[in-house]
Amino acid sequence: MLRVHFSLADLAGVRFGGAFPENLAGASLEEVLNRLHPDIRWRSPTLLVDGYPDQEVHLDGHGLVLVVGNGCAKPTLTEGDDRPVTLCCPIVPAPRVDEERLDALTGVFGRTRVRILHALRQESSTSDLAQRLEVSLSTASQGATELRKVGFIASRRDGGAVRHRLTGLGWRILTESPLRAP
Question: How far apart are CA 97 and CA 14, in angstroms?
Answer without folding.
Answer: 33
